[in-house]
Specification:
single chain; 4-stranded antiparallel β-sheet; 143 residues; 0% helix; 12 strands; mainly beta
Length: 143
Amino acid sequence: TDTVDNVMFNFDGKLVASGSMDGTVKIWDTTNGDLKYTLDGPGAEINSIDWHPKGNVILASSEDGTGWMWNASNGQFMAVLQGHEQSVTQAKFNPEGSRIVTISQDQSLRVWNPRSSELIHKISGHGFHEDCLLYTSPSPRDS
């Protein structure tokens, strides 16, 4: 394992994921500190990790221009999000878990369906910030 540069707890705090510069994501059991799974696939550094808000699905963005999803309950690969031309700097689930947003150094933002891995929207031509993506829902009074 190389330098760890991302960590995040899952929705109930029973698991923690760590992403590292060697392109792996590790899933740890917080009740006993045991390593449950080492998830690999990306060809380069993990730039960000995010948990599904309601389940044990982990999402990672990679320096290789892809996003990856795994089922953290069993360690199984689920999907790869492909289409960016440069590093994917952030990948996030929306608060409901029904969409994923990725941003990239290729100056595009992409919206994906996490169930099908289908690209829903692509927005290009904006110099997106490389290090931060915040996904919020409108408050009930704004709906």
